[in-house]
Amino acid sequence: MPEYANVIIDISHEKLDKIFQYRIPAPLQERLTVGMRILIPFGLGNRETAGYVVGLTDEASYDPEKIKEIKGIVPGSVPIESQLIALADWMRKNYGGTMNHALKAVLPIKQKTAEKKQRFVSLAIGQEEAAGQLALFEKKHYTARARLLSALMRQSPMPYEAVVVKMNISVAVIRAMKKMGIVSVEEKRLYRSPFGEIRQEEKRVTLNEEQQRAVEAVWQDWEQGRRRTYLLHGVTGSGKTAVYIALIERVVKAGGQAIVLIPEIALTYQTVARFYQCFGERVSILNSKMSPGERYDQFERASQGEVDVMIGPRSALFTPFSRLGIIIMDEEHESSYKSETQPRYHARETAIARAGMAGASVVLGSATPSVDSYYKAKQGEYLLLELESRIEEKPLPACHLVDLREELKKGNRSILSERLQGMMEQRLKNGQQVMLFLNRRGLASFITCRSCGFVPKCPHCDVSLSQHNNGRAVCHYCGYEEPILEVCPKCGSGYISGFKAGTQKIEEVVRAQFPKARVLRMDFDTTRRKDGYERILSAFSSHDADILIGTQMIVKGHDFPDVTLVGVLAADLSLHVSDYRAAERTFQLVTQAAGRAGRGELPGEVVIQTYSPEHYCMKLAKSQDYKKFYEMEIAYRSLMHYPPCGHMMVMLVASEDEMTASLSMELLAGKIRQAMDGGKLQGLSVIGPASPPVAKLKDIYRKVMYFKHGGYEELVGIKDVLEQFVGRHREFAKVSVQFDFDPMGGF
Ligand code: ADP
Ligand code: ZN
Ligand code: ZN
């Protein structure tokens, strides 16, 4: 039984760091849990104050004699903060890091910045009396007072600012009239609405049979009080959003609230407008461009019950809804659902944990579900719902694979194959649009033979080697390295090198080849401005350009009915990164890109250019056969014990000093090996230590080590032991040790 409770008094940014310790009286020891709201004596006067339990421990953090005792648990319903604190505790346990990091991620934190309040001046007397006063003022030539009064008789209340600035009425005049009891001045909290004006009329659709079936499956459970996790697998354009909306409508009608998670990149005007059309002012959105104040406003509205639906990226998961009934997670396979800062949580697992605490259902949706989720659906952990056809029976686009090795043989060194060029020409002639997609990712570049497609792989980990600046080919998992080859070992050609291509270069090539075409480019550079992304999308959707070139960004969230051709320029760019998820990610990207073609009246076509046309990922992306892809992929994962067939944890050790980083890592690795040699940690295998893809980041040196085990809990246990070890030894004072579970790109 823990003896002490760590408690926070207030939920504001600075105060989260102040944790107070209290003794747990014996009768409460079995009942007290993290998140509970309790009463404690606080301060010099021991004033009775409410606080939240954020941790339970046996260790007193100072003189036990001086630790005060908890008075009791606040009775009544559980406030939403309690639930979120419990969720933070769950996150800390499952992903590592401190309770503070976790609390800061989940709590709607008050900012120090002044709340934006607006003052209003209103008429405090009736119209008749006002008319009398007005005559009086006019008679006395009190022109300012008369002006304000007559304005208020027409419109009340009026913003204070407008009265002072626009009507040029002095503060003294307002004060005087207030004193006379003619006007009143009130402050109203102003919520900064994230919406501009949304006009666009959404046609209300009648669900087709498949959609209806999916909705009913979830709804029947919901009505009978069963809450679970569903995986909605629906091809692109099968109408998943309409399913989400129908479900939310029912949940809201039954008194529940809904959180809709959408990756930021797909959170476009078009998408938001569809929800707005159905739920009007009862829907709110979050995005990463909002200031902390704006975000807090939205959370505040949510906790006041002014909102039923919150839409946003990962962090919208922590919306303080007290009647949460359903969590929707669209594009559930997206890697942006994994936090890359502490706490390194995955929004999917965290959503399921929160839903469990709140009594809500979770619907995960995707055209290309993550292998993790599909595996769980197959195991019966999630319920699989499928939408197999596109709306209005629109055919999926026809896909062509182009072998880039053949192009080289033909003497074509352009990034555009002859086939793609020909098809582009034809579209331009017919006034149709083309999208060219480059699925590059990160900085790491892989090595390939452009003549035969050979890619050197790590003999231990079966992932591709990456080219490093030191002229060596390196495995990012285990640190294995070899010199970069000058001649291909398979075909003897000298065309073996690191593969690099950028969107800018492609734009040049396209402009040179098609001088008359209007070309837009969308990548990190052209979207840096606040509205850059929307601007380019809307220009392309109103057909102000013929060709759109871009990265991942262009494949999400928008319907372009005139696009009849999508070119995936070098599908290998994401296939050969050293990451066990490379094939999964490539399949997803190619399928999503292909899904952009043929969404209007005209059928679409897709060209996938690759050096590895024989790879199952390419073949199955061509036939858009997700189920077959899953089977192939799960066989590889199972053979290599990669997630979901087993679990993986990365430990990062980082320090400003390279030597300190290395030595600390050695110390930790030694401790693990010692335990393993002693016969402990059955079933654990370790890889590394090694240098991560980014071995030095902002002058901090980094080392990683990978742990594989069949059970997640076992890895969490190892993390706990290592965290405690680090906490107890002074050698680690200047290093940061972090963990990442089932990494999606990782450190
Ligand atoms: P997904 O998210 O599965 O790719 P969407 O939900 O974006 O698909 O739907 C694709 C298009 O089909 C949208 O324009 C949507 O308005 C339309 N749509 C969805 N359901 C129906 C329906 N039952 N009848 C007619 N049109 C529909
Ligand atoms: Zn070769
Ligand atoms: Zn390796």
Keywords summarizing the entry:
GIY-YIG endonuclease; 31 strands; 747 residues; single chain; binds adenosine-5'-diphosphate; alpha/beta; 22 helices; binds zinc ion; seven-stranded parallel β-sheet; globular; Rossmann fold; six-stranded parallel β-sheet
In words, what does this structure look like?
It is a single chain. It contains 22 helices and 31 strands. The strands form six sheets. The protein has a seven-stranded parallel beta sheet, with helices on both faces. It has a six-stranded parallel beta sheet with strand order 16-26-25-17-24-23, with helices on both faces. A five-stranded antiparallel beta sheet has the order 2-1-4-3-5, with helices on one face. Helix 18 (582-594) runs parallel beside helix 19. It is globular, with a radius of gyration of 30 Å. The structure holds adenosine-5'-diphosphate (ADP) and zinc ion (2 copies).
Question: Short summary of the structure?
Answer:
With 747 residues, this protein is an alpha/beta fold. The protein folds into 5 domains: 4-106, 3-Layer(aba) Sandwich (GIY-YIG endonuclease); 117-189, no CATH class; 209-392, P-loop containing nucleotide triphosphate hydrolases (Rossmann fold, 3-Layer(aba) Sandwich), CATH 3.40.50.300; 394-443 and 500-637, P-loop containing nucleotide triphosphate hydrolases (Rossmann fold), CATH 3.40.50; 647-741, 2-Layer Sandwich (Alpha-Beta Plaits), CATH 3.30.70.600.
